[in-house]
C-alpha cells in the first residue's frame, strides 16, 4: 500500500520529549522536570485569565496590541518591533522556516535546546553542532563552523539544560564575527533569573542592526507555561517577515490577557526572582557537598552528574521527585532539576542523601 511520503529529512527529526509529569502509584509528586515556576503565576494573571471565560466565542486580537504595548512599556522597547507567538518555540520555528531551507545550514551549540535541530530539520535545513568549552557556548567554535551555507545561529543565553551563559561582550564578539547575512537568534528564555553584571539578553544587538533577534517566554518566571506565550524583539525587516508567515490568530485571547497582567506585576516577578536567588545556591551547595558535580547555573534549575544516574533517578522518584533526564542533550550521566519550593528542594536533598549515607 502506497502512502503519502513526507519531505526528505522529516523522518530524521527526533520528536521533542517533554519532562515527565507522573510516577506510577504516587499521588503527591514533586514535578521538577520542566523548569516551571514552582510558585505558580501572578494572582493578577490568574484573575485576568478567568475574566476571559465569557468571551471565548470571540477571535483574539490578531496583532496582540495590548500585550506588545505592555511588553514594550516594561522593557523599554518599541512595541512595533515585538512579535508575539504561541510560546517562543513557535517563533523559533517560524524563523527557521523563513530564513533557512534545503541546502542551508543552521548552527547551534553542542548542548543547546532540543528545539533548534527540530526546527532546523523541519525547515529542510541541515543542523550544525558547534562544540562547547566547559559546557558553555564557545564563540570561536561557532564562528569556525560558519560556511557560505550558514543562514541562522541559535544561542540560548542562559543555556538549557546546562544553565551556563556567555557575557554580553562575548555576544557582541559573536555578532561581529558572523557575516551580516547570517541571522543570530538569542534565546533568552531565562533572562529574568540572571543577576550577573556582565550578562546581556541581546536587545542591544537587535537595536544595532538588522541581523539579530531576541526571543523571550512567559513560561518560566511568569509561570504561564500552560498558555504557550512568547515574544521576539526584532529589527523591522525581521518583523515584516514574521508578520507574513505567522498565523493570523496565533496567540489566544486568554494568553494575551494573562500575559499583560503577569508582565505588569513587577512585585510578583521580584518575588519569584528572590525565591530563586535564595534556593538556587542552596540547592547547588547541598548537592555539591554530597560529592556530586553540579554545573554552574544562572537559571532556575541545576544539572547534576552522577556516577550512577539510574540509582539517582530511582532515589528521587522514591521521594516523589520527578527530575529531567538529559541524555538526549549529551549528558547520559545527568539529571536536570528545577528549583522548587522550599519543601521540594529539601526533598531533593533528602533523596540524594540516601545515595551517600
**Amino-to-carboxy terminus distance:** 59 Å
Low-confidence stretches: none
What average pLDDT do the residues reach?
96
Tell me the radius of gyration.
Answer: 20 Å
Strand order of the largest sheet: 2-8-7-6-5-3-4
Main pleated-sheet profile: 7 strands, mixed
Number of strands: 13
Tally the helices: what do you get? 12
Shape: globular
Residue share in helix? 25-40%
Strand content: 15-25%
Jot down its keywords.
357 residues, alpha/beta, seven-stranded mixed sheet, four-stranded antiparallel sheet, 12 helices, 13 strands, globular
Topology of this protein?
Elements: E1 30-31, H1 43-50, H2 65-75, E2 82-85, H3 87-99, E3 105-109, H4 115-122, E4 126-130, H5 139-145, E5 150-156, H6 168-177, E6 183-187, H7 203-208, E7 212-217, E8 230-233, H8 236-245, H9 253-264, H10 266-289, E9 293-294, E10 301-305, H11 309-318, E11 321-322, E12 324-325, E13 334-338, H12 342-353
Parallel strand pairs: 1-11, 3-4, 3-5, 5-6, 6-7
Antiparallel strand pairs: 2-8, 7-8, 9-10, 10-13, 12-13
Helix pairs in contact: 1-9, 2-9, 3-4, 5-6, 10-12, 11-12
Structure description:
It is a single chain. The protein has 357 residues and is of the alpha/beta class. The chain has helices at residues 43-50, 65-75, 87-99, 115-122, 139-145, 168-177, 203-208, 236-245, 253-264, 266-289, 309-318, 342-353; strands at 30-31, 82-85, 105-109, 126-130, 150-156, 183-187, 212-217, 230-233, 293-294, 301-305, 321-322, 324-325, 334-338. The strands form 3 sheets. The chain has a 7-stranded mixed sheet, sandwiched between helices. Strands 9-10-13-12 form a 4-stranded antiparallel sheet, with helices on one face. The mean pLDDT is 96.
Amino acid at each position: 500500500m502506497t502512502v503519502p511520503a513526507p519531505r526528505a529529512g522529516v523522518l530524521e527529526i527526533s520528536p521533542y520529549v517533554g519532562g515527565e509529569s507522573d510516577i506510577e502509584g504516587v499521588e503527591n509528586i514533586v514535578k521538577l522536570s520542566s523548569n516551571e515556576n514552582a510558585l505558580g503565576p501572578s494572582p493578577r494573571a490568574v484573575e485576568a485569565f478567568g475574566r476571559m471565560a465569557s468571551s471565548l466565542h470571540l477571535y483574539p486580537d490578531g496583532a496582540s496590541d495590548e500585550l506588545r504595548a505592555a511588553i514594550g512599556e516594561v522593557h523599554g522597547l518599541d512595541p512595533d518591533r515585538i512579535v508575539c507567538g504561541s510560546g517562543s518555540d513557535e517563533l523559533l520555528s517560524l524563523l527557521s522556516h523563513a530564513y533557512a531551507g534545503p541546502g542551508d545550514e543552521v548552527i547551534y551549540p553542542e548542548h543547546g535546546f532540543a528545539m533548534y535541530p527540530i526546527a532546523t530539520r523541519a525547515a529542510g535545513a541541515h543542523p550544525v553542532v558547534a562544540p562547547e568549552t566547559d559546557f558553555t557556548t564557545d564563540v570561536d567554535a561557532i564562528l569556525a563552523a560558519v560556511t557560505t551555507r550558514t543562514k541562522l545561529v541559535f544561542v540560548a543565553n542562559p543555556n538549557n539544560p546546562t544553565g551556563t551563559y556567555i557575557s554580553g561582550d562575548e555576544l557582541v564578539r559573536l555578532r561581529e564575527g558572523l557575516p551580516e547575512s547570517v541571522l543570530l537568534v538569542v534565546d533568552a528564555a531565562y533572562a529574568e533569573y540572571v543577576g550577573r553584571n556582565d550578562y546581556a539578553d541581546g536587545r542591544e544587538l537587535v537595536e544595532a542592526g538588522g541581523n539579530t533577534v531576541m526571543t523571550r517566554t512567559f513560561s518560566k518566571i511568569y509561570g504561564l507555561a500552560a498558555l504557550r506565550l512568547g515574544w521576539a524583539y526584532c529589527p523591522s525587516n525581521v518583523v515584516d517577515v514574521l508578520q507574513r508567515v505567522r498565523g493570523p490568530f496565533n496567540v489566544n485571547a486568554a494568553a494575551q490577557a494573562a500575559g499583560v497582567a503577569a508582565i505588569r506585576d513587577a512585585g510578583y516577578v521580584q518575588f519569584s526572582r528572590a525565591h530563586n536567588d535564595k534556593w538556587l545556591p542552596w540547592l547547588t551547595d547541598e548537592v555539591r557537598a554530597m560529592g556530586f558535580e553540579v554545573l554552574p547555573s544562572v537559571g532556575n534549575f541545576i544539572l547534576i552528574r552522577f556516577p550512577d544516574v539510574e540509582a539517582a533517578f530511582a532515589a528521587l522518584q522514591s521521594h516523589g521527585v520527578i527530575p529531567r533526564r538529559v541524555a538526549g542533550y549529551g549528558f547520559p550521566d545527568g539529571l536536570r532539576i528545577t528549583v522548587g519550593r522550599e519543601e521540594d528542594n529539601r526533598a531533593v536533598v533528602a533523596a540524594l542523601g540516601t545515595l551517600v549515607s
